[in-house]
Structure formats: structure tokens, C-alpha cells
């Protein structure tokens, strides 16, 4: 683990042995960020705010080929937002509403 401290913005940053940022701590705890990684160095969970009561939690799922196929955003007091990635298609569901986005040649 490596830690970088005393930036002008008050942030302290921690990295794992692979160079992944695992933690960002600020004087304003609402901006704090903790990131968990898989054995393949892919972010699987990001928590914002207080470590014991995060204001936002985002989780990611990956397939055997390493590509992300699902994202889930949880904010206290709001409905969970789920995004499925299927090829060039994004399916976003939140609060009973589902929207679909299609990318053509990498453009939305």
C-alpha cells in the first residue's frame, strides 16, 4: 500500500500494490471515496461519503472476458439505478422506468 498525503485540497490518497486508488479521504467526509477491486484489478464497488453510512454506493459486475455487464447505483432515499451492458446496448432501470440506449460505431 502507498499513501499520498497533504495535497492543497486536503486530500489523502491510498493505492494498492497494483497502483489502483483504494481510498481518497478529504476534510469534508462527504467527498470521501473507497474503491474495492477484483483479483483482475477491476473496480467492483465504489463508496462515497462516510465509510459507515455511504451517501452513494456503485457496484460493478464483469463477465469471464473482463467486460462489464452490470452497474448498480444506490443512493439512500432514492430508488436503485441498474444498468445492463449488452454489446452496443445499455438498458437503464430506475423507479419502474426503463430506458434503452444503443451505440452505433461507438456513438450514442
Description:
The protein is mainly β. The protein has one domain. Helix content is 0%, strand content 54%. It is built from no helices and ten strands. The protein has a ten-stranded antiparallel β-sheet, with no helix packed on it. It is globular and about 45 Å long. 2% of the residues are buried. The model has no long low-confidence stretch (mean pLDDT 89).
- By DSSP (H or I, 4+ residues per run), the number of helices equals 0
> End-to-end span in angstroms?
39 Å
**Rg computed from alpha carbons, rounded to a whole number of angstroms:** 16 Å
Shape: globular
What is the string of helix and strand elements?
Answer: EEEEEEEEEE
**Major beta sheet, strand line-up:** 1-2-3-4-5-6-7-8-9-10
Number of DSSP E strands? 10
Main beta sheet: 10 strands, antiparallel
Strand percentage lies at over 45%
Helix-strand category: mainly beta
Helix content: under 10%
Mean pLDDT: 89
Summary tags:
10-stranded antiparallel β-sheet, globular, 108 residues, mainly beta
Task: Give a short synopsis of this structure.
With 108 residues, the protein is mostly beta strands.
Topology of this structure?
Layout lengths: L1 E3 L7 E4 L5 E5 L7 E5 L5 E7 L4 E9 L5 E7 L6 E6 L2 E6 L2 E6 L6
Antiparallel strand pairs: 1-2, 2-3, 3-4, 4-5, 5-6, 6-7, 7-8, 8-9, 9-10
Amino acid at each position: 500500500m502507498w499513501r499520498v498525503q497533504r495535497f492543497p485540497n486536503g486530500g489523502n490518497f491510498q493505492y494498492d500494490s497494483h497502483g489502483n486508488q483504494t481510498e481518497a479521504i478529504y476534510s469534508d467526509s462527504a467527498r470521501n471515496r473507497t474503491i474495492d477491486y477484483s483479483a483482475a484489478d477491476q473496480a467492483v464497488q465504489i463508496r462515497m461519503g462516510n465509510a459507515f453510512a455511504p451517501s452513494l454506493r456503485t457496484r460493478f459486475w464483469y463477465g469471464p472476458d473482463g467486460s462489464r455487464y452490470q452497474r448498480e447505483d444506490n443512493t439512500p432515499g432514492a430508488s436503485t439505478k441498474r444498468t445492463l451492458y449488452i454489446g452496443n446496448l445499455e438498458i437503464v432501470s430506475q423507479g419502474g422506468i426503463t430506458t434503452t440506449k444503443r451505440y452505433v460505431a461507438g456513438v450514442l
